[in-house]
Design brief:
The chain is mainly α and 126 residues long. Helices cover 75% and strands 0% of the residues. It is built from four helices and no strands. The longest helix has 36 residues.
């Protein structure tokens, strides 16, 4: 590429304007968010219960959050180092919370084994 005055001007103007994304991308994401929201409402409408209900709700929630972060917050076009700096700390906290939940179930089970039927049970009268 030659550095003609016209070429230098267009590069300078493109840098000043910033990156422009096609409007079609935003419409496609909007439609996907609408479909995912409809799926979330369908879970309630179908009156699903238990683990299936909460799994579907969390899956829809994470997919919608991912779309919003990637497109509307322009994370899809950022450098990998910035993505890691923003996403890794919350993911690490989620991992640590999962470890705490597993540990709390073990601790509660150990208390039941060692102390009897439950920690809140009334002492037996003799």
């Amino acid at each position: 590429m030659t550095d003609t005055p016209h070429a230098m001007d267009t590069r300078h103007v493109a840098h000043d304007e910033g990156q422009q994304h096609p409007i079609k991308l935003y419409f496609v994401v909007w439609v996907l968010l609408f479909i995912l929201s409809a799926g979330s409402y369908w879970v309630d409408y179908a009156q699903l219960q238990g683990l299936l209900r909460w799994s579907l709700i969390l899956i829809f929630m994470v997919l919608k959050a991912g779309l919003i972060i990637a497109v509307f917050m322009h994370m899809a076009w950022e450098r990998l180092a910035l993505i890691y700096a923003i996403l890794l700390p919350p993911l690490a906290l989620i991992g640590l919370l999962a470890i705490l939940i597993i540990e709390s179930e073990y601790t509660a089970g150990t208390r039941v084994i060692e102390l009897g039927q439950g920690a809140g049970a009334a002492p037996e009268e003799q």
